[in-house]
Amino acid sequence: MAETEKGEKGGKGVNVSAGKLAINMQKRLTRAQEKVMQKLGKADETRDTAFEEGVSNFNKQMVEGAKLQKDLKAYLLAVKTMHEASKRLQDCLAEMYEPDWFGKEEVDSIAEDTDMLWIDFHQKLVDSAIINLDSYMAQFPEIKNRIAKRDRKLVDFDSARHHVASLQKGKKKDEVKIAKAEEELGRAQKVFEELNVELQDELPTLWNSRVGLYVTTFQSMAGVTEKFHKEMGKLSQNLNDVMGKLEDQRNIKKDSNTKTPAKSEAASNHNTESDTIPKSPPKNAVTNGASDSGDLPPGVLYKVKALHDYAATDGDELEMKSGEVVFVVPFDAPDEQDEGWLLGVKESHWLANKNLSARGVFPENFTQRC
Predict the structure, then answer these.
(1) In a 3-state reduction of DSSP, which class is residue 332?
(2) Pairwise CA distance, residues 7 & 169, whole Å
């Protein structure tokens, strides 16, 4: 008995599934016939120009969004590749940099900070652009399915409308069939109009939302990129300064290795009396301890030569032309000196005015000590 009931229930389930399949097949056949009749001009088609324009904009918007999403992810992959290349380069420098060279700790620190800056840049691009764009693109598949469903229901509505019209024009009117057809027409019209009204409201709103997405995405990217390059520029300047001082260290060692004390035969045979007589300082010697060079004015530490033109951007800066000689002087307050900047007076000003009043700051890496 139980087995019989189970079999009956199972058979009923199969019958229901088969019934639904038959209904769906009939709908597809009816829709196909309706589309053929419309194409042949034997049946009119309900058209909505405004809605069709909205669908055209939707398709364009979806294609553009997909392209932006693809290119943005390619850009993100390029950033990751650049990060990996930068890290390998920084690691190579750190490994080659010998412990007794100037700025070993600074070089290691710059390499670590550079790596962290790339990581932060990549993550902020993901947070500010990729996630937002992925969320934007996620809404298109569902709306696309609803547009397709709306089109199918429109065909059903047209088919039901034509069926009612054909029954009403028949010679022998069957009121029962007409009533049933009109009832089916009402249901088809209701389903279609519900979908149609929803999409007519949503499509223009979605179309207008693209402007906000582009603004948000590219403003965020621009801000993140600007900050990244600004911080990276500082690290690059620091590395440049360390490399310059390393070169100075090498030159000092090179000079000390090539200079040997020369003593003339006459000097080696000087008498004891001459040793005991104090020697007068040489003419034009600086005795204030500022410099060991006899051609420098009092208060000057040393002089440098401009390697490049430098255009002053602030009132306290010193404008230089390549080849000009500048006297370096100490800051009045040492804590006012920024790293990589010197205070100086042009040699030409000193020769013309015999004073050190026209002072200005300038970047040290634009000059070479002479």
Answers:
(1) coil
(2) 48
